[in-house]
Amino acid sequence: MQDIITVEDLVVIYPDGTRAVDGISFRVKEGEFFGFLGPNGAGKSTTIKTLTTLLRKTSGRVSVAGYDLEKSQREIRRSIGVLSQETSLDVDLNGWENLRLQGRLQQLHGSVLENRIEELLKLVQLDEVARKPAGRYSGGMRKRLDLASALIHKPKLLFLDEPTTGLDTQSRVAIWEYLEALNKEEKITIFLTTQYLEEADRLCRELSIIDHGKLIAKGSPSELKAALGGDTITLTLEDALLRAKTKELLRTIGGVTNILDSESGVIAYAKNAGQIIADIVTTLDKNSIRPSFLSISSPTLDDVFLRQTGRRIRSEELSRKETEPFLM
Amino acid sequence: MAIFYDTQSLLERYLIKLVRNPTLLATNLVTPLLFLLLFSQLLQKFSIFLPGVSGGYLAYLTPGVVMLNAMISAPQGGVSIANDLNSGFLSKMLLTQVRRPAILLGRLLTDMLVVVGQSIITIIVAIALGVKISSGLPGILLILLTTAFFELALSGIFLTVGIRTRKTETISAISGVLFFPLIFVSSAMFPISFFPSWAQTVSKYNPVSYAADVTRDLVLGGLTFSTLAWAYTLIGVIALVTFAATLYQFRKVIS
Lengths: 328, 255
Known about the structure:
The structure holds two protein chains of two kinds. Chain A is α/β, with parallel strands linked by helices. Chain A is built from twelve helices and 14 strands.
């Protein structure tokens, strides 16, 4: 398979001096479902905006859909569809009119456009509300209409910037199913950014983890998790001194492949954690260490992020959610 | 031609939006009629000071209200582009193959159409109330062209402010501060011979006076080539300056 996106040493610096993207390189193959996972402010949106011609890069070489980003912006825009993070519809126009306007701006005409509108309205299940103003749609419906408008000119490459942020679970799953179908059945290459671990895990076959404008890990979700060296053993310990002692003791136990600090205690990785858990409990007990919580789980992408950065994505995600109004 | 197709697509968008916002549409239509009816009623007795004007103060006022239409519509383009910038809709348009100039052209045409529509209604109401347009239908067409051109020249100010600040409040504030002195310290509403000398001086340099004088001469009669040429030159210069500024700001957004 050919590469549909190639990025080499991409740097994007904002006028205020912020290095939003700091020398990243990656390739996306045709037909791939490719994801950029990272917390808020990692550089995901900046990368998408640059690749889709909205932002100017500071340096680096980028080719999208076979065209050079610097020389052939028009050709790139013809080949790609983009779903921005902020749903952008004209709320005074109805669903049908929004798609018609988008289609006309993409240079479609007459019956070809009309048929495509009907087809897309059915695909995103908005055919029954197509004549209602988009301003009266729910958050999920707006996102689906926006997705349909990104697809109007049958792009071979679709960029999605946090497509499910702010959506309820049901709408999120609906969007996931459309995206999976588009990738499998229509063979559309998808480049998606997300701050949701389960979204990256479920959808993406290839993943890059980005933080502070740099790529910190690459691979398929299962490869990334396997690289941690087995299952995750989480121990919650309030006392900082006990944490240091615990880490020391864990190092003596055979089978433990990696030990990390977490916000609430210590995390150890081990192949077949179930077999050594008894050793761990006995050793700790002998030294009078009683964790307030202990669990074994399969590693998640959050563990991958934690290992690379020492922080969790999930905690940032949660604290953000509390301050953000729920959009629905 | 793609640019015509794109301009037409966007013109349609703005016209649909206008029809879907009945309050805005009604305000656009009612405001000039309100000025026409209110001022001509309140200042009915003013007609005795205008012995040379057939049709009295109402006939004098009609051209001024037509120019007022242009001034009411001029900020709309700026408001619209600021809203599109804030909602992300402008970015969405920039991600399509739309010819960039069509984004401005579609909006400018919409506002010019609105002004022409308002002015037609204003003229019909004035005629119904007894005003005679001495220059007939060709004169009415020239009135409509003048007011549309004047609106176009002024709209560049608000497009520039809208793209630069992205704040509709700033546009409202500027239009409020700008319009009252411009419209009242000019020949649009009252003959400048009634003004104190400083206001007469201001009126003589006020572009609204030039645009209103052309329209007034077309209503009352006696338009000379030099009045027309001066007004169009002045409006043309304003248009050049405001659109140089608009294009400068717009290029920063689209590149």
